[in-house]
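Fold this sequence, please.
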Amino acid sequence: MTGWSYRRVFYILAGGGLIVLSIPDRQWLGVVMGIYFIAMGVFAFGCAGGNCTGGACARHPSEK
């Protein structure tokens, strides 16, 4: 729960909006996706935690 950024807040808001819009239409896949986006924002995994930028996920070949 540290290192909050605008991106994490955006993921939480977007996930909540997706859930709110999906429930009346009974689009359960949308609810599941909304929960996933909220989890990304709250627990800072995936791109919401900044792991997709700055080369954090880059794999460099090892020299033998």
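Residues 32 and 43 are 16 Å apart (CA to CA). The chain has a mean pLDDT of 83.
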